[in-house]
Amino acid sequence: MNSQVETRDYKVTDYSAMDSDKLFELYVKTHDVDIRNTLIERFLYIAEIAAKKFAGRGVDYEDLYQVASLALVKAIERFEPERGIKFSSYATPSLIGEIKNYFRDSSRVMRLPRRDTEQLKKIKLYVQEYMAQRGMKPSPKKIAEHLDMTVERVLEVMEMQQADNVLSLDSALADSENFSLGNVLGQDDVSFEHIENHDFINYCMSLLNDTEKKIIEQRYLGNKTQKQVADMLNVSQMQVSRMERKILGKLAAVYKK
């Protein structure tokens, strides 16, 4: 009995007992939906890990998990077991790349035409797969040959990607993690406000007698309680309370002028 007939004789229940390498070999030959579903169930944990990695960043986990699951299906369809690469090592960069693309598309400032967006996704996906397999980026010529595009078109789409990247104010400058774009933006100078406040406070204090000044200084600069201030002045707490209300009323009247 040849291998093709043997493959047809497998039951769905048999697939769960087979190792992943054998399942991928069979799927490449047959593209059997049951085999693919078994592989999806077996490797869904990769989608869960990838989605959790980006959870809590403004997008619901369920949405991230859906994006990662669809990317997993695509990865299974494209996987070539004869290359000798573990599927998890091959699929993980693709899933993470799809999630990052989802974030980028969701927050895109400049909307690209649908055709350009689709071609950009294909280029990114191929670059990710190429790097996962060979450890280096493909040349524009290789990308063009693989996607049946002209080199000029590939360069044009890749340039659109650069134009679409908006720098965050937290982006590091000069290779320094502690020096960001936001650091070089101008800020309001609060020195003038401090000078005005200082002059106003001095003016208000000049309107008070020595006892009133001492109460304000001890209560609001020395953080003393009314009881502590009363003991210092050798008066009752009730007297300090009445004097404090009187002082604050006087200062409030000055402020409203």
Could you tell me the CATH topology label of the largest domain.
Four Helix Bundle (Hemerythrin (Met), subunit A)
CATH architecture of the largest domain: Up-down Bundle
Q: Report the C-alpha radius of gyration, rounded.
A: 35 Å
State the low-pLDDT regions, or none. Answer: 1-13, 171-177
Element pattern in H and E: HHHHHHHHHEEHHHH
Helical percentage: over 70%
Distance between the termini: 103 Å
Please describe the biggest sheet, giving its number of strands, its sense, and whether it closes into a barrel.
2 strands, antiparallel
Strand content: under 5%
Task: Summarize model confidence as the mean pLDDT.
Answer: 77
Structural class, by secondary structure, is mainly alpha
How is this structure best described in words?
The protein has 257 residues and is an all-alpha fold. The protein contains 13 helices and two strands. The protein has a two-stranded antiparallel ribbon with strand order 1-2. Helix 4 crosses helix 5 and helix 6 runs antiparallel to helix 7. The protein is elongated, with a radius of gyration of 35 Å. The N terminus is likely disordered.
Defining key terms:
disordered N terminus, mainly alpha, 13 helices, Four Helix Bundle (Hemerythrin (Met), subunit A), Arc Repressor Mutant, subunit A, 257 residues
Question: How does the SSE layout of this entry go?
Answer:
Blueprint: H1 3-9, H2 12-15, H3 20-30, H4 33-53, H5 61-78, H6 87-106, H7 114-134, H8 140-147, H9 151-164, E1 172-173, E2 176-180, H10 191-206, H11 210-221, H12 226-233, H13 237-256
Antiparallel strand pairs: 1-2
